[in-house]
Amino acid sequence: MDPVRLTDVTLRDGHQCLIATRLRTEDMLPACAQLDAIGFHSLEVWGGATFDACLRYLGEDPWERLHRLKAALPRTPLQMLLRGQNLLGYRHYADDVVRAFVARAVAGGIDIIRIFDAMNDARNLRVAIEATREAGAHAQGTLCYTTGPVHDSAQFVALARELTAMGAQSIAIKDMAGLLTPQATRELVGELVEALDVPVHLHAHATSGLSELCHWEAIRAGCRHIETALTPFAGGTSHPPTESMVAALAGTEHDTGLDLEALQAVARHFHEVRPKYHRFESRFTGVDTRVQVNQVPGGMVSNLASQLRDQGALEHFDAVLEEVPRVREDLGYPPLVTPTSQIVGTQAVLNVLGGERYARITNEVKRYLGGHYGRAPGPVNEDVRRLAIGDEPVLEERPADHLEPEMERLTTEAGELAESSEDVLTCALFPEIGRRFLADRRAGTLMPEPLEEAGDDRPGCPAPRHFRMRLDGRDHEIEVRGSGTAGDGARTLFLSVDGRPEEIDLRVLDSVHMNPAASGGGIGHGPAAVDATSGAVAGDAPGPADVTTTMPGTVVDILVAPGDAVAAGQAVLVIEAMKMESELTAPAAGTVTAIHCERGAAVAAGALLVAIDTAAAPET
Length: 620
What we know:
By secondary structure, the chain is an alpha/beta fold. Helices cover 35% and strands 18% of the residues. Strands 1-2-3-4-5-6-7-8 form an 8-stranded parallel barrel, surrounded by 6 helices. The longest helix is centred in the N-terminal third of the chain and has 14 residues, at 25-38.
């Protein structure tokens, strides 16, 4: 017998792909005893987007989730996904932060760490691999699979050899978009098995509908470790079903030895659980063969659709999908996986909605083209690079080589809210939402977003309140579903906007924000007033020199103040949208008369953010 070993990804990638990473720990724990008795090679339970989702949406401490799962799964190795030098965030961290995070993750219960870099730049994996080995866990190096004129099997084999030389104890093919075909799988796996002395694992999403065939060809070519998800969280943009692959291999020389009926029994729990999360279902998570052309992973597809829907611009969805490969080509054909998928996807949205390609370039694209994420796989479009960073030098070294040690500073910045080194790392990875989470935890006001529609039969659930609102020239259907306390005197409202769940924080603003005269503002630039009867928004539309945003997002930084003279094209705000930052610039020279936002505020597309009076333009 030559059995195939299975890693089940239901508790991480399965629900990340199909219900936006919303599965709560309380719905995982009841199934853990059954899962632990199955005999899996490992269970993927942590990393990826789960850390972010726990803090941002679920009111859960991701570290506590790990500790509870470890206690509930004592027999089965636990696995996580790590973005190399990016850890679980969206920037590169200094080496001391990487080592500290890996050490805490292993101490918290992680046995296997899959380590990848979105650029397939091995330099960005070295420290994480070393730290994993030093902590006593299994370090798995990863090949982010993609296709294009600069990618071939020989390149992936060379990368695999480089990673094993660094200390990787196994190699995973990470086909995050479902691009593999049976023929390509057989060739790549065969070459890797022949070239390496460590096990080869296959992690392939089912987006294109070819996943089961690819897994079969991988097994025939010598792969003995595959990844699957239980049927309630399998298929489409997720993975092939665990039960189906066990049944397919039963009675062959590669029989997994797993009990099909036991798997079906534990799957029933998740079949019963999934309907609770119906509000996070999406029509964009099914089989879609277009991925073979546009290479957009399923999670990125649903993210793009959500962003466009928020702006009332869903009719541009196909145009954005067509623009993604063009942006990817301009950036040197990077694999589309976090964070490069967000970098490319957000820029594609801006190119389509902005009317002119690269009229607005995100800060992440600028950093990418400056070499701050690592070495691009292929040559970049030099015209786009000049447009983004001008004559600035491009980093040739490993980006983290330019970062000073950060842990001491990050510990100080976390302050008294951080009760442990884990809390410090939470703030390090997600400064804004991390601090808010810790503050709410201390105040006892943590509250997960609601799962069900308001007005159901649950005790204490208020009846839904509906109204229409006209905002920035568009009519919206609003439903207030519930409320909670966000801390610091703020109140969180859970809403449905045109059928899509949203949440907003209400804060009492001081007179500088509420009174345009107090801030030097002119008539017509005060906050819009909502008519309680009609829901219509009163107030002037932004003027031609005022600063607005084409995408909803969060204000990261305000670079000007009322009374400041600004030049045309000068950056005045930094906005985060789709997890990427970009600068908003002044359309014309003038004087800032009012700021209509604050740091950390969520802003809508088209909202007036900075008022500029061109009549008071400085002399040149």
